[in-house]
Amino acid sequence: MAGGLLDVQGLHATVEETEILRGVDLSIKSGEVHAIMGLNGAGKSTLASVIMGHPAYNVTAGSMQYDGQDLADLEVHERARAGLFMSFQYPSSIPGVQVGTFLRKSVAAVRGEAPKAREFRKELQAAMSVLNMDRSFLGRHVNDGFSGGEKKRLEILQMLLLQPRMALLDETDSGLDIDALKAVAQGINSLSEESGVLLITHYNRLLELVVPDVVHVMIDGRIVQSGGPELAQRLEAEGYEWLMPTA
Amino acid sequence: MSDEARDAVGEYRYGFHDPEISTIRFDKGLSEQVVRDISALKDEPEWMTDLRVKAYHHFMDRPMPDWGNEALLNSIDFDAVTYFLRSSKGTERDWDDVPEDIKRTFDRLGIPDAEQKWLGGVTAQYESEAVYHSIREDLEEQGVLFFDMDSGLRTHPELVKRFFNTVVPYTDNKFSALNTAVWSGGSFIYVPKGVHVEMPVQAYFRINAKNMGQFERTLIIADEGSSIHYVEGCTAPTYSTDSLHSAVVELVAMEGAKIRYSTIQNWSSNVYNLVTKRGIAHANATVEWIDGNIGSKLTMKYPAVLLKGEGAHAEIISVAYAGEGQHQDAGSKVHHLAPNTTSNILSKSISKNGGRSTYRGMLQVRPKAEGCRSKVVCDALMLDADSRSDTYPTMEVGNASADLEHEASVSKIAGDQLFYLMSRGHSEAEAMGLIVNGFFDPFTRELPMEYASELNKLLEIEMEGAIG
């Protein structure tokens, strides 16, 4: 399994003494789209947060390699600068900070230099038109008073500007109407073909618009089944019963 | 990371000092003779000398306030202060005529540059007196008077006499008495009826010498239907001994006039900053205090507005940043004395590394003031568990028709906010800088752009020092 862009092996993680991840193995190569499906509480979001480095989680066993580096050696912002990106299920609001300023500063932080004003404006216009976002977004404060759909669009806008090599998308499809879902899917599909993508979702509807190479099912902190897109369809039709461990 | 950042930027970037330059320096300590000598040196009219002497005795007789940070107040050694220091022979109109060392200081502070780009006039005070002063010709032609206070008294004694000591009488508090006794420098402004001064005018106050006391006195009169925006900046070097800054500012906004007074004080952490600022707003006039308090050892300052005429309005937006070893005791006072007057008060404070911020507010509605409206919002942000924030709002409402709103909040930076920003490539210090700048945004956006970006940079540097 090793040799991918992102290699997770035997990963165990706890939050406040409770073990959430109980031995996760996952390998994603450049250009691959993987989906992780599963019921609430299975540990899907935790997996994304642990890969990104959320300080509330403790990694108790296993390893995470990204592009040949041990992620344990990198702080959160260093992971971002190395090309990892996470789209949050519940992004924080930052009152008083304008979206435009935030985007420019984030791009400068990740790229290691401030983008030229005119080029950045062009990039921004292109990315915002993919997502059907109005320019007025730029003057609002980051996620402050945003609707669920607006938050998700801003997450994907950030992804398009930061051009990550590995994107972790945590339930980016939840709570979206069909237009917003299409815009978000278009955003994901316009990401570089070289990038790896990990989609965390409950539903098949995003996977009809962003077709995954591999679908994993997570139950109780482990990946219990992997397959192609047909696995997602079967889960949609039959649910998770058939995968549950028999007592 | 933090040590490197500190080494790179210095903890307080205006903490440099130049060799002391003095043409006249008084011995340390205060007496009636010192007060008389200051007045004689300036060749003042007798009424001013008399006022100074009365104020001196009031200062000596009046006990220290028994509220606020009493321990720090009582540790001030008034005998160790230099009350008057003249560093230049005169007030120049051309930077090239300002003594080289002093000019270099103001160059480093960016004043001549700012003047060229966006100011209508500048006063630069070094120690006790203005060393440079200029006003744009077009403003002069419209009859706008803009002088340092000493020159204002010399050239327009009647106007000064009519308003001086009327908004903030020396009997107001111990430090207004001290200022009235030993004042020197500051600004005097008169804007004629109907004149709108479009570009802000600025005064910059720099303390350079050790153990210096700076006691500038500012009087701004905006005649009927006129308007002006005055900007005040201040810095001082970092010394191991204390300096005292005790200013008095009096604003008079006549009917329909508007005065905006913006302050960015960025004192080094050895400065006691004890300032009385008050404005009177006559009918349909507006007085606005945009007041930023960064630095100092102890600041006690509560910009006030007396809403004296019907329909007058007060706007007070203040921020305070208390770092290690600093206490910002700041707030606001609004007195609704007339009917249908309105006020809007927003106070934001940040405490970090054991710093302490206190909000002290007074809102008063007099019985005859029918139909008043006021909104008060106080927000405190604590960056760590060692820091402290207190709020003391007082409301005295004598008229039941008043429509009052009061909101207060205390918050911490949430771990999720930091994680979110760090996942976008920002280091922890940069993430805190973004959050802090956002928190102060309602204040920052009221400032001229050049000040706003300077303040944002300053806070980002402060956050670099915050991470262990």
Topology:
The complex is a heterodimer of chains A (247) and B (468).
Chain A: E1 6-15, E2 18-28, E3 33-37, H1 44-52, E4 57-66, E5 69-70, H2 76-81, E6 84-87, E7 94-98, H3 99-111, H4 117-130, E8 141-142, H5 148-162, E9 166-170, H6 178-189, E10 196-201, H7 205-209, E11 214-219, E12 222-227, H8 229-238
Parallel strand pairs in A: 3-10, 3-11, 6-9, 9-10
Antiparallel strand pairs in A: 1-2, 1-4, 4-5, 7-8, 11-12
Helix pairs in contact in A: 5-6
Chain B: H1 2-9, E1 24-25, H2 32-41, H3 46-61, H4 70-74, E2 85-86, H5 100-108, H6 111-118, E3 121-126, E4 129-135, H7 137-141, E5 145-148, H8 149-155, H9 157-163, H10 174-182, E6 187-191, E7 201-206, E8 213-214, E9 217-222, E10 227-235, E11 243-245, E12 248-253, E13 258-267, E14 271-281, E15 286-295, E16 298-301, E17 304-307, E18 313-322, E19 327-336, E20 342-351, E21 356-365, E22 373-382, E23 388-397, E24 403-412, H11 415-422, H12 428-439, H13 441-444, H14 449-464
Parallel strand pairs in B: 3-7, 6-9, 7-10, 8-11, 9-12, 10-13, 11-14, 12-14, 13-15, 14-16, 14-17, 15-18, 16-19, 17-19, 18-20, 19-21, 20-22, 21-23, 22-24
Antiparallel strand pairs in B: 1-2, 3-4, 5-6
Helix pairs in contact in B: 2-3, 3-10, 8-9, 11-12, 12-14
Task: Describe what you observe in this structure.
The complex is a heterodimer of chains A (247) and B (468). Chain A has 247 residues and is α/β, with parallel strands linked by helices. Chain A has one domain (6-243): 3-Layer(aba) Sandwich (Rossmann fold). In chain A, 34% of the residues lie in helices and 29% in strands. In chain A, the strands form 3 sheets. In chain A, strands 6-9-10-3-11-12 form a 6-stranded mixed sheet, with helices on both faces. The radius of gyration of chain A is 18 Å and the shape is globular. Chain A starts with 5 loop residues before the first strand and ends in a 9-residue tail after the last helix. The model of chain A has no long low-confidence stretch (mean pLDDT 93). In chain B, helix 11 (415-422) crosses helix 12 (428-439) and helix 12 (428-439) runs antiparallel to helix 14 (449-464). The radius of gyration of chain B is 21 Å and the shape is globular. At the A-B interface, helix 2, strand 7, helix 3 and strand 8 of A face helix 11 and helix 12 of B.
